Amino acid sequence: MYSSVSICGRIIRGRVIGVTIALLSLSQSALADDQLPTSEMIDQSIRKSLPLLERGAKGSLEQRKQCFNCHNQGLPVMALLTARSRGFPVDSEHIKTQLQFTADFLSRNKQRYREGEGQNGQVDTAGYALWTLDRAGWKPEETTTAVAEYLLIREKDHDYWEPDANRPPSEQSLFTSTYLALRGLKTFGVPDQIERIDARIERARQWLMKTTPRETEDLVFRLRALHLINASQEIVRQAASDLKQRQNEDGGWAQKEEMLSDAYATGTALVALQETGDISSDNPVYSKGLLYLISSQLEDGSWHVISRARPFQTYYESGYPHGKDQFISIAAASWCTTALLLALPASASSSH
Predict the structure, then answer these.
(1) Nearest-5° angle of CA 72, CA 78, CA 81?
(2) Domain coordinates of the chain in residue numbers?
(3) Is the Cβ–Cβ distance between 339 and 293 less than 8 Å?
(4) Residue-level pLDDT at 186
(5) In percent, how much of the chain has pLDDT > 90?
(6) What's the CATH fold of domain 41-341?
(7) Is residue 93 packed enough to be buried (19+ CB in 10 Å), middle (13-18) or exposed (0-12)?
């Protein structure tokens, strides 16, 4: 049922370009193996990235006026919210517009959620939309209750939730879809759903503990899911250890063991380890990962990740660089920027 995906041509191309970018960046930065990232280095990297995230999110909103998408809206908005909480200047009106767009997108599908039908992208899209709203402090209401009902009905005969697409790395993992569904249920479930939510959580708990993760995406979201459902400390620590063991000598993580480190895998790993409380920002694992992110960031402030997904949607330019690789690249940049931001203290004056 659960198998990994290999697209050899893209992987080989990704290796060549990835090596070129990494070598160029490392030579420019001249980072020593034992160097720690300074607050100035982190701050500079964040400030170079934020305008591109805003541009890509705004461009997607202009191009796709009816559809919420995770890579160009959900993830960048969550990164921008984190930036605001750390005192970085962001366009708050733009964030407000994105959040209302996300809520309106869910509301238009409200009846479909109640009937268990969902929308394009199914659990992943609904889950990331709820995650985005929750990060902004959105409170449960009629629409979010309908989405929670959909998550309860969807795959009700399974112990896990499935993605609707096979678009690695971000839309192919049972662990990702399962985490997104569980997070949505725990955050936006209402009292009359609690008994059914608890039952699904328990079934998912058993599945998470017995199912072996393969790719970094699996490891990241298995760790997140186990932490979310309050699995035992021993189990969560082991899941974190499994993820940390995948860190490469260059400080990064690869999407798959046979690939080279890249920004997407590294950003997701660092944020998961930080947000589940496994490591602090001064931990050597985290510091080494941040150095990889800083050294692999391009001069324009972006990160470039080669797409492994077969395109099926009409292509459009959002404003983020890297052409047909822009969607996975902006997702990666969102995670990278968040990882860097989490190394800084929250601003005392931040607010939603």
Answers:
(1) 125
(2) 41-341
(3) yes
(4) 98
(5) 77
(6) Glycosyltransferase (1.50.10)
(7) exposed
C-alpha 352/C-alpha 345 separation (Å) is 16
For residue 276, give every residue at least 6 positions away whose Cβ sits within 8 Å of its Cβ, in sequence order, or none: 223, 224, 227, 236, 240
Exposure string for 261-286, b = 16+ CB within 10 A, e = fewer? bbbbbbbbbbbbbbebebbebeeebb
The DSSP code for 211 is S
Judge contact between 65 and 329, C-beta under 8 A.
no
pLDDT at 189: 98
- Output Rg (C-alpha) for the chain, integer angstroms: 19
Sequence letter at residue 58: K
Q: Is 183 helix (H, G, I), strand (E, B) or coil?
A: helix
How many H helices and E strands in the chain? 14, 2
What is the rounded end-to-end Cα distance, in angstroms, of the chain? 41
Q: Which two tokens stand for residue 346?
A: 């929250």
Q: Which residues contact 157 (CB under 8 A, 6 or more apart)?
A: none
Between CA 313 and CA 317 the distance in angstroms is: 12
Q: Which of 50, 71, 22 is nearest to 294 (CA)?
A: 22
Tokens of 155: 């795959």
Each residue's pLDDT tens digit, 41-85: 999 999 999 999 999 999 988 877 767 787 879 999 999 999 999
Q: What is the pLDDT of residues 172-186, one digit of tens each?
A: 999 999 999 999 999
